Amino acid sequence: MKPLKFAHLRRMFALQLIAAPLVFLLSPLYAQGGYLGWLALPCGGLLSLGVAYFSVRVAYAFKGREWAEYGAGIVGRWPHYAFTAFMLVYCLQIATMCASTYAELFISVYLEGTPTPVILGCFLLCAGLAARSGIRSIALLSDGFFLSVFGTLLPVLYVLLSKMDYGMTIALFTHWSASKLAMSSFFTAGWLNDMSIFFLLAPFFESEPKPMRKMASVQALVVAVLIAYWLASLLLFGPKLAGNMYYPLLQAVRFISFGEVLENLDPFLVGIWSATLLIKTAVLLFVASRIVMRLTGMRTHRPLTFAVAAVVFACAYQISRFPTEFLELVMLPSFQIFTWFVFLTPAIYWTVAKIRRMKGV
Questions:
Q1: Of 109, 88, 95, residue with least CA distance to 314
Q2: Contact partners, residue 272, CB within 8 Å, separation at least 6
Q3: Measured between alpha carbons, how far is 216 from 170 in angstroms, rounded to an integer?
Q4: Which of 171, 231, 305, 345 is 20 to 30 Å from 71 by CA-CA measure?
Q5: Long-range contacts of range 87-92, CB-CB < 8 Å, 24 or more positions apart?
Q6: Among 2-6, 76-80, 284-288, 308-312, which stretch is predicted with the lowest mean pLDDT?
Q7: Mean pLDDT of 173-186
Q8: Residues sharing a CB contact under 8 Å with residue 260, sequence separation 6 or more, in sequence order
Q9: Mean pLDDT, rounded, for 180-206
């Protein structure tokens, strides 16, 4: 298959990076960081870029080859199998989170009484079809969503400007806490670390002379949008009230009228969330099915995609029955350590490869 342009990957990552944070990051960020989110977001973005650097280096050291092909030659066969299993579990976990939270959002806000399996099945069917068609289809789908998503974010933000309490901005410069900033920055970086899987997707895209500069521009765009919407919700509700809301941004826009043409703007926001979560889930299903393909020795991932989606469906449905316990699980230090271990996998491979090269192995 002919490699896709690097620009496709940038647009796909932009939608991936903004998908979950725009929905689920804001509320816990208010609870953890208070008024310091405007600093925690760029600090977390820089930290996630540092992690992505190793993913880029590993991918460009083995251009055109998938990680499953060269990974065993770096760390050994059995350690590579262990890392592969961790990566597979991570993809399934995050895809499960996306599907379950999407279903919870729609059922609790719009489609009350709708059976959870119906929403989960429709969402995962669409994501599975995109993943089964391959990375080219996902990239083209991202191109179609990119302008509509980021074009819609600006007018929604413009409407919110007239409702904000700008007198609260003084608190942005008077409430300082080094511990809160460090904790919220680390927490934010975990939500912005999608670029760490660059090494898994790089073989399907053309090489770029200066990839980190391009990736940094994508990260800067996403961080700027998140800061704008974080600030909008903060100046509307304050950190304490917003920190106790499940979806503060949705509450901010759903009751704002925009003339006689548009009664409210929440359909636009929900459309953005639906598009971005669909892309993120499709990418995760594609990566997971490619990993299973390599482990089983099959020639194509297509027959495995719906099997992987079925596993995600079963996990998401089980989670939907115990939402409180699931939220506690996500915030556990053990879960955070596991995700960061997965994020640092490219750094481990890069370090081992460097050591082996220095020793001439």
A1: 95
A2: 22, 149, 152, 153
A3: 30
A4: 305
A5: 87/200, 87/287, 87/291, 87/342, 87/345, 88/288, 88/291, 88/292, 90/338, 90/339, 90/342, 91/284, 91/285, 91/287, 91/288, 91/291, 92/284, 92/288, 92/308, 92/311, 92/312, 92/315
A6: 2-6
A7: 83
A8: none
A9: 86
205: phi then psi, degrees, rounded to nearest 5: -130, 155
Whole-angstrom Cα distance, residue 205 to residue 8? 8
pTM: 0.90
pLDDT, residue 124, reads 93
pLDDT value for 287: 93
Structure tokens belonging to residue 310: 């079925």
Identity of the residue numbered 85: A
Helix axes 26-33, 211-237, angle to 10 degrees: 70
Q: How far apart are CA 191 and CA 24, in angstroms?
A: 9
Q: In this structure, are residues 100 and 247 in contact, taking their beta carbons and an 8 Å threshold?
A: no
- Residue matched to tokens 């413009």: 158
What are the φ and ψ backbone dihedral angles of 262, each rounded to 5 degrees?
-115, 115
Q: Indicate whether 67 pLDDT > 80.
A: yes
- The residue-averaged pLDDT of 177-191 equals 84
Higher pLDDT, 145 or 171: 145
Q: How many Å is the Cα radius of gyration of the chain?
A: 20
How far is 233 from 311, CA to CA, in rounded Å?
A: 36
**Confidence at 260, pLDDT banded by 50, 70, 90:** very low
